[in-house]
Each structure stands twice: as structure tokens, then as C-alpha cells.
Amino acid sequence: MNVTIIDVAKKAGVSPSTVSRVISGSTRISAATTEKVKAVMEELGYHPNLMAKNLVSRTTMTIGLLLPRNADEAFLDLFFSEVTRGILSQATRAGYDLLLKTGKSEQEELEAVTRLAKGRRVDGIILLQSRRDDTVIRYLLQEKFPFVLIGRDPERPDILSVDNDNVQGAYDVTRHLLELGHRRIGYAGGPLELVVSSDRYEGYRRALAESGIEPDPRWVFGADLIRQDSTAAVRALMEQPERPTALVVMDDLLAFSLLGSLSELGWSVPGDMAVFGFNDNPMSPVSTPPVSSVDIGVYQLGLQAAGLLLKSIKNEEIAERRVIVPHRLLPRESSQPPGS
Amino acid sequence: MNVTIIDVAKKAGVSPSTVSRVISGSTRISAATTEKVKAVMEELGYHPNLMAKNLVSRTTMTIGLLLPRNADEAFLDLFFSEVTRGILSQATRAGYDLLLKTGKSEQEELEAVTRLAKGRRVDGIILLQSRRDDTVIRYLLQEKFPFVLIGRDPERPDILSVDNDNVQGAYDVTRHLLELGHRRIGYAGGPLELVVSSDRYEGYRRALAESGIEPDPRWVFGADLIRQDSTAAVRALMEQPERPTALVVMDDLLAFSLLGSLSELGWSVPGDMAVFGFNDNPMSPVSTPPVSSVDIGVYQLGLQAAGLLLKSIKNEEIAERRVIVPHRLLPRESSQPPGS
DNA sequence: CTGAAAGCGCTTACAG
DNA sequence: CTGAAAGCGCTTACAG
């Protein structure tokens, strides 16, 4: 019922092989034949059946994106849509499609990935997170199936990955605050099982150490604490005799919560507490006060990841197996010294 | 090189047909045979080649999602990730995959959709927006290819669609503000070419009219104005002799901008101006003050759209061709009367 | 420059 | 309950 290559061949008075060659822009087809076949394709409204094409060419022109299963953190909303746009942009440019997959558990994720890989559903896969001893990564490695991780797997530094230098990012923010004269600087983030979180904590700690400052453990508190009861967390923080005057906050969303609680308790930002966030939420510039943040280039992460994956799929030379997307400090009012 | 159905058949001592039947859980295969074949599949690590399966079964078990091309508005970030999650959840449950597509122009979008439909790449498509005289919708209709629109096409009320009742939503918000005693109520939103925007404006206008209030045109201003220079827009608004005491705002992100400018100019919310937003941004409850909003159930929009599309693909009975996802007012501090 | 033939890995009437 | 055969719509050596 649908127009096939055979219909076109008949009508154009050539063989199916020839039509196929015209479609693929193959060599050595006469201009006359090419023109005739193209005209017939147009006339009949022919479009190649991608399934058939994929089956015989053993390639799908599709890459898979595995979504992290607990995507219920608001931060991930933004990350997800930006990174997807980056991936899609790069993939589309190269003629590739993007298939989305998710799983509710590690088991389901593994099944999904197995289906994609073994079922020849996609040519490569992008991962948005890695867990300790990640079975998905282990499987992909063992099958030698092309994949790229956005982030970092401390146990397998040699896999293809695209990431920020999160240690350096937090280091930069902390140094920035130190240079503004702050000595007692706190850190809000976590959980530390997440690589990104522990990396940022490490950068924070390192900058302080370089200045000979040993952070008081009471200056450091977890994201879950803030989410549960931000006001209680802030009150506990501010009641300390030696309370911090600045906070490095792992994500702007967290920073917004803290801002709300500080204001509720009558403290002013940046007067009583300077705040510097991460991930440059679109709301950060328009919040009250505007929140200082680190732009981590989420779109770029996606773009680069897709680029790297495509190289891997096509067996092209890969210069760096680990691509670092640069970050950028965006100081705004929430961390400005009073005078400026 | 990869294990095929033939390898399994040989090893199990049966025909390929039988293996195929075991895989599809077909009728009339003896328990003994089934067991034997399954054991061999397990042993050989067999996984069906999806391309081959799709080719012969003329079905892809995949649905396509077309992303709106100008997805650079921050609001869409949230909408996109939530709606995708809803779609993915429903699709995965039914054993379907999700393919993402985008185009930089209407022309590119049409080409993308043509490839998907004619190329038998997907079984159905979900659209996230419609334009006046939308060529993509016209094409899909003409090809009788299954699709669902999230939103509303005023020119084609009979297509499958999932949407909120945006007129009613804005009506409800405006009534809520009227009941709190406000008489001069403004509206911030637009552009009015977007159906969702004009629908909300219509609901706003209707509620006022019912109370015998004719809105002053100076109370109504566009989103672009706010994005360009929120403070100027707010100043102009507040300098009016008969300035509004409450604002219906088309999106929470817009509300955040307004909040910032109001605060900057020394006005208090809700004291000097009550604000009621839309789309319940995750930040709304934690902003200062917490922003009243309308939860439009984005996840549900995605879930229902996928459900509707799957019914259409399977030619199942469809009771309502237009599904309305209920909205919910979430009054917070930004619209509370001073005393409460 | 072009065609005939085999094959990609599966499903599905048709027989038995 | 099971098998042989044809076919899904394309590509790609192999010949000429």
C-alpha cells in the first residue's frame, strides 16, 4: 500500500538497485537516470522505510538517552531539558534521532539498556548519571557498546565522559568569597554519595585549607535537611556564636529556600549572609536579591556528549576521552560586599 | 555474529517459526517446547532484533514527540521535562518507546514529521503546540496518521487533544481575587497569539465582566514588556492614579520578575499588590513571599496525551476526543489578604 | 553505469 | 502443536 522502492523502479524503468543507489547518492549513476528516478520518487511521494534500511545496514541512526530514575528533584527538570536540547541539536545536525528511555530501578534500567543494545535499537547511549559499581556501565563496557557518561565515574576514569570540573568550580567560588573578606564560609549541599556533590564539597574544603581555615562541621549541612525544614536549618545555623558570613550552595534552588528562610527570620542577604549558588537557574537573576551562581553550561554538556558519542559510533579518532565543559562564575547581588 | 532466531532454533532442535511463536507468547505451543526454547534463548543470550520485527509487523512500538522550535523560554524547560515524564511513564508501561524530534522552522518540522510518518519510524505523534493554519497538523490529518495535540487548535476542535480549561482557570483566579475584595485587577501575560495566553486573558476578562468591571487597558501588559525591562513596566503600572491592587500573571516566572521589581521599587506583596501566577513552578512555594499559583498538572497532560495516542494507534474506542486535565488553585502568601 | 540475486532477522498464513 | 515457505522493504557484493 505504501510506495516502495520497487514501485519507483518499475515506473522509472530501472532496477530497485538503481533506485537505492540514487537515494544513497551513490557513485556512478548517470545524471539522466538520477533525474528520472528522482522525478518519479517525487511524483509517487516515495519515502524510504527506515526500518528496512536499518535492518540491512545494521545501523539505526539513533542514539538513546537514559534518564535517571529518581528525576523528581526540581533541579533535574532544568538540567534534563537543557541537556536534551544540547544532545538533540548535535544529533539532528548529524542526521541522528534521539530515543528516550527510563527505568524505575537499576534492574529496569539494565533491561532497558539491554533491549536497546542487543535489539539494535540505537547505535549508542548517553548516560546522565553513574552509581557506585554501576551495572549499566559494566554491561555497556562488556558489550563494547558505544556510550558516553555525562558526569564522572570515579571507579572508571577511562570511559568516555563529559563533565564540569566541579572541584575547581567550588574552589573558585570559595576563593571568590575569601577574596571578598569572608573567613567563616559554610557549605550547603549533598548527599555526598553523588559525585557532583562530593566534588564540590572537596573544592570548597580545599580552598579553605589553602587559606589555613579548618571549616567548622556545623557550617556544613545537607540538602535534605533544607528541604525538610529550611527555616529550622537556617535558625540552627544562625544561632551559632561563630556563625558563617557566607555560604557556598550546591544548587540555586537550594539557595532560594535558604534566602526565603533567612528573610523570614529577619536576616538580610548579602548583609548578614552572602550566598553563592550553582547551576545558574533562569530565576536566579530575577530573584530578590538576584542570586550569584555558577553557569555550568548544561546545553554544552549535552552537545559535547552527543558529539563524543557520534565519534565513538563512527570509530573516529578521539583525542580526549574526558571532555571538560568550562564553568563561569556569575557574581550577583546575593554575594556582593555591602559597599559595591 | 549476533545471536538470531535461527541460532536458537537450531540449538533447540525446532524451527524458527516455533521460536518466533514462543517469543510472542503465541497460542498452541507445548509447554515442553516453550521451556526448551526459553532455556536456549537464555543460554545464548538471545535478544530479538527490533528492526526486523518492526519491518515485518509494520509497527514500531514507538511514539514521536515533536518539540516546539522556540523552546528558549524558561517556562518551557519545566513544561517540557514534566510533560515528557508523563508521556514516558505511560508509553513505557504500554511497552512503547519515545522518540524526540525538533525542527528549527515550520518547514523543518514538517520534514521531520514526514520522515517519521512515511518512514514508518513511529506509530503516532504527540504535538506540544499548534500554530494558526498549522501545516504539520494539516499533513498529519491528510495522511490519517495518529496524533494528539497537547493544547488546543481553535480551527480544528475535532482533533485528538489534551489540555487544561485555561479560560476557566483564569476565571477562577480572577473570581478568587474579586472575592478577596479586589476590584482593580490587572493581567500580565501574552503574546495573545498563543492560544493558552488568549484563553487565560478571556477568562480574566469574563470574570471581571460578570462583576460589572471593565478592565482599564493600562492594567494589562505583555510578557515581552516585562522581560525587556520589568522595573520600567512595574513603575508605569504603579504610577497610575487608579493602579490595580492585584495581578493575574500568566506564568510564575513572570510573577518572579514582577515581585523583584515591586520589591526594588519599595512596594510590598501582597500589601500593595496581590499576585497570582500560573503553572506552579517548583520555586513558587519557596520564593519570598511564596507565590500563589495554579497547578495545571503538566505531568498529567503528558500521561493523558500518551494514553489517548495509544488508543488511537490501536484503534480503540475513544470516548472523548478532547481530554481536559483539571487545574487547582494554590493560594499562597503573595495573594493573601493582610489579615489572614 | 546498471541489473539479478542474495540476504538483513524476523512473522505469518498455509499445511499438516 | 509444528514446519516450510514467502515476504516485510531495503542494500550490496558480484557480474557485466
From TrEMBL, chains A, B:
Gene3D superfamilies assigned to the protein according to its UniProt record, in alphabetical order: 3.40.50.2300, lambda repressor-like DNA-binding domains (1.10.260.40)
Domain HTH lacI-type: 3-57
Domain HTH cro/C1-type: 2-33
InterPro entries (alphabetical): Cro/C1-type_HTH (IPR001387), HTH_LacI (IPR000843), LacI/GalR-like_sensor (IPR046335), Lambda_DNA-bd_dom_sf (IPR010982), Peripla_BP_I (IPR028082)
Top-level taxon of origin: Bacteria
Keyword set, alphabetical order: DNA-binding, Transcription, Transcription regulation
GO MF, one annotated term: DNA-binding transcription factor activity
Name of this chain's protein: LacI family transcriptional regulator
